[in-house]
Amino acid sequence: MNESPVMKIPERMLQVIHETGNVVLVTHSHPDGDALGSLFGFSTILESLGKKVFCFLEEPVSHLYDFLPNTAKASTSLDQYHDFVAGAEGDIVVIALDCGDEERLGKTKREFLEIQPLLVIDHHRSHRQFGTISWVDPRRSSTGEMLYELALALNVPISYECAYNLYVAICTDTGSFRYECTKPRTMHIAAELLEKGVRPEEVGTHLYDNSSQERLKLMEMVLSTITLYESDKIAFMHVSEEMLNESGASLHDVEGFIDLPRSLRSVKVAVLVKESNDGHVNVSLRAKGECDVAAVAKQFEGGGHRNAAGFRCQGKTLEQVSHELRAALRKALN
Fold first, then answer.
1. Residue 276's pLDDT is what?
2. CB-based burial of residue 164 (10 Å sphere; 0-12 exposed, 13-18 middle, 19+ buried)?
3. Confidence of residue 4 (pLDDT cuts 50, 70, 90)
4. Residue 78 Cα to chain centre, angstroms
5. Yes or no: is domain 5-207 CATH 1.10.287.610?
6. Buried residues in 190-227 as b, exposed as e (16+ CB within 10 A)
7. DSSP letter assigned to residue 287
8. N- to C-terminal Cα distance for the chain?
9. CATH-assigned architecture of domain 213-333
10. Lower CB density within 10 Å: C or N end of the chain?
């Protein structure tokens, strides 16, 4: 008999959730669709159990995801967070969603690491252990998929708003169900969410047909930087601060750009290198086939999945990072 997916959730995690009245939900910095969909979807699940929930984000919700239900619940205010913690009078738990390691919690990580217990729910294969109780399942397509299973384990009915958020979480991390992480269980859960009234065409319009003129201008600039290496198996492109300023777009607008060079027939690995105004260089990696980009990202203190990974560097230029990464990818492909 196959073990039920619900049985993989730590019993102690379920117990803590049931027994605690106040919950702080956090996710990684620069949150994507899985992070935000999971955050807002799980907040609805917890509120159904009568919990008071505080959703903290390091930065406001990106305009790319402001269509998600319940985004108004998010707060970027540490003062409001401190007030919530004080009001809980010790009856509180922090739950970190979709975080591969504690560093991904961002600049405010110490605020959350100080509270016990700290629960962690994540699906990254490169996960580095942190927190009090962890449920990490790399076989899952997304954290959103895991939260659906958690709702079942908690005996919480899935509302339309929750279903919408979890569907977006799953849809974005599977590349609209195109990536290797898409399993039969993933599709079954997606079907269950559609039964709650979620319309795929509406979600698709929000995710893929919602570009601003500034974003298209930036895309034009970024596409012009594509350079191919290793018999056209590796595609590099980059985004500079100058491009962002000239186009009027934001770094959030870059999301999804990496899929463009990845679509080239010959390309096995696509790379997008981004300059940020805080002095960091952010790198996204996408692969087709056998190249394990999570292993490559790990060499740079990053991580992710076999076919989708990333890392962040400080103290190096865009050119330096690109040069070092090309050498690492060359070895990985050969």
1. 82
2. buried
3. very low
4. 22
5. no
6. bebbeebebeeeebeeebeeeeeeebebbbebbeeebe
7. E
8. 41
9. Roll (3.10)
10. N
